[in-house]
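Deliverable D2.4 — example input (structure tokens):
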């Protein structure tokens, strides 16, 4: 006597079979997806170490080009304020070292550099060395997903001053932002060899100075549009306010900080850094991380946090401080719209 299965019975059997197969493989697929996601995470201490290495390598190129008098400067155009934006071989050579080193090591991470170049160096590789002071102060195992990370590179900050032989202002910088917030900042001075670094919430080789003032503060500003900003500062803090003009956003952040013991420095000192026109995020992200790691702030002129993801241009100006009441500084600032100046 034969066994006959109804169409319904066949359907149920097939559905049960599919269910068994699904349960057999669902766990395998889930584990593989989890492993894939895990591989896409990056260790932030590794990113700090490679950021230091990249900044130093870029700095060597900057110094070498300058010493060999091979700048070959040309104009990239003009800023909104009419200042000439220069490009030199120092910018390009530094960019090639810094960008390729980081991108080759962390290909899934977004890397934004001030410069753009078609030269690809597939051989550029991280040494895997972690400097002793980083090992001493920073724990490993702090991870972020590659998709959440944006790296900002400034291969040569203060290019104008570089061409004028005012090399004390020149820096190379790397910043790591996670979900738009600056987490790691590196500012390297090629002509002194000093490197400042910080990891927000973990540590830094820099310190706030022992004393600051806001009554009135000493303020450091850009050389490139000193007339407008001087009037703005005097309106905010009074005509007796000391104003220092300097090149390079990286240099101006270092002017707010204390160098490590034993490091000689000819950097100017200031209580507050103010910038009232447009500025690019690769100029300021590293400094923002350094200040935040030391309890300081870098905001727009109206006190808003700056998002270090997306477009490169910060349109809100900036105020940077550490060791003072940042809110009190902001309250003294006159209304100002950088987009109208």
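Example output (designed residues):
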């Amino acid at each position: 006597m034969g066994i006959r299965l109804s169409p319904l019975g066949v359907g149920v059997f097939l559905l049960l079979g599919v269910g068994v197969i699904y349960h057999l493989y669902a766990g395998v697929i889930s584990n593989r997806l989890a492993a894939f996601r895990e591989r896409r995470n990056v260790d932030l201490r590794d990113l700090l170490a490679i950021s230091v290495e990249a900044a130093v390598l870029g700095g060597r190129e900057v110094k070498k080009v300058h010493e060999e008098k091979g700048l070959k400067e040309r104009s990239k155009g003009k800023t909104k304020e009419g200042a000439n934006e220069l490009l030199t071989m120092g910018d390009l050579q530094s960019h090639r070292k810094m960008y390729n080193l980081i991108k080759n090591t962390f290909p899934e991470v977004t890397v934004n550099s001030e410069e753009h170049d078609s030269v690809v160096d597939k051989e550029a590789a991280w040494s895997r060395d972690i400097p002793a002071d980083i090992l001493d102060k920073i724990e490993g195992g702090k991870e972020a997903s590659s998709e959440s990370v944006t790296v900002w590179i400034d291969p040569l900050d203060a290019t104008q001053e570089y061409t004028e032989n005012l090399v004390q202002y020149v820096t190379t910088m790397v910043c790591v932002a996670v979900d738009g917030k600056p987490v790691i900042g590196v500012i390297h001075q090629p002509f002194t060899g000093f490197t400042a670094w910080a990891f927000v919430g973990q540590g830094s080789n820099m310190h706030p100075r022992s004393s600051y003032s806001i009554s009135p503060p000493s303020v450091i500003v850009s050389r490139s549009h000193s007339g407008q900003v001087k009037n703005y500062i005097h309106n905010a803090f009074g005509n007796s306010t000391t104003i220092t003009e300097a090149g390079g956003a990286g240099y101006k952040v270092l002017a707010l900080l204390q160098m490590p013991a034993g490091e000689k420095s000819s950097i100017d000192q200031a209580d507050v850094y103010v910038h009232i026109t447009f500025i690019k995020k690769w100029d300021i992200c590293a400094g923002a991380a350094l200040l935040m790691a030391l309890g300081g702030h870098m905001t727009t002129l109206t006190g808003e946090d700056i998002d270090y993801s997306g477009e490169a241009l910060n349109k809100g100006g900036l105020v940077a401080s550490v060791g003072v009441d940042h809110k009190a500084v902001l309250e003294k600032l006159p209304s100002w719209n950088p987009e109208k100046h």
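The longest strand covers residues 149-157.
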